[in-house]
């Protein structure tokens, strides 16, 4: 058997699916935070979020929850203001 680098871990398909989903949700949350910290949500940013939510399979409910979180985050609001 050929040596594969990096080494493949002994993870089940279900474990891989869970890890992937967690990465997708964290990525979406990170983009929402960054866009909030940049300031106003432009049409281009809205379009980007629409495409990203499709690619990462983010539901409308999850999107709204992430937006609420970011809008109410004092640190992100302060960064956007300054």
Automatic annotation (TrEMBL):
Any one GO cellular component localisation term in the record: nucleoplasm
Species whose genome carries this gene: Pan paniscus
Occurrences of domain ENT (ranges): 16-82
Protein name: ENT domain-containing protein
InterPro entries cross-referenced by the UniProt entry: EMSY, ENT_dom, ENT_dom-like_sf
PANTHER family, per the entry: BRCA2-INTERACTING TRANSCRIPTIONAL REPRESSOR EMSY (PTHR16500:SF3)
Keyword terms of this UniProt record: Nucleus
Gene3D superfamilies named in the record: ENT domain
């Amino acid at each position: 058997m050929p040596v594969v680098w990096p080494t493949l871990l002994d993870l089940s398909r279900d474990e891989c699916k869970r890890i992937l989903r967690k990465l997708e949700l964290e990525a979406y949350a990170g983009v929402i935070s960054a866009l909030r910290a940049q300031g106003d949500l432009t049409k281009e940013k809205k379009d980007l979020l629409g495409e990203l939510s499709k690619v990462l399979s983010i539901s409308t409910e999850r999107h709204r929850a992430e937006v609420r979180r970011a809008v109410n985050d004092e640190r992100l609001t302060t960064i956007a203001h300054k």
